[in-house]
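Lab meeting minutes (informal)
Scribe: AK
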Amino acid sequence: MIDNQEFVMHKPAAFAAVFSVINQRGLMTPEDLHRIAAIAF
């Protein structure tokens, strides 16, 4: 299993798509996404 940073480094589009879907379903707020992005990047 690869860690999130490695996943982001190799699959940025997939990473973005996953969080886009999560956000569309209302499971996360944009603020949550910004926090995750700050940690991931």
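Next up, CB showed the second protein from the same session:
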Amino acid sequence: ARFSQPTKIRDRQKGPCPSQGEGTPETGRRLMPVASRKVEPVRLLRTKPWFRGEYLSVRSAPNGLRKNRWAVLVSKSAVRLASDRHRIKRAVLGRARGIPNMGQDFLVAVLKGKASKKELDSEFSRIRIKIDK
């Protein structure tokens, strides 16, 4: 509905809850703008795969930081159920903790969803061997 006059703050009903802008601390603001955060995965998709196994494809690019950042992509065509996609993401990120910090952004794409924990462990052991070279 259109209003003939703009609604003013003083016209709002006073209640026990403050409006969203009032009383919120400044610490909740984002440090990085949203647009530049969306550019990061696209930059990684344009790089060549750094590692390609039977179940995982890993791309990497330097990020200028002292720590690694990880992103995991599990498509719906690879794994139908959302709960299974989330389980695989958690499993991949859990195994990524063992990779030493090199200041890289890693994008892990899951190619087949039927990977067991044992198969994921073997893929990550091959990734560790490639890093150690």
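CB comment: Residues 30-35 have pLDDT under 50 and may be disordered.
No objections, moving on.
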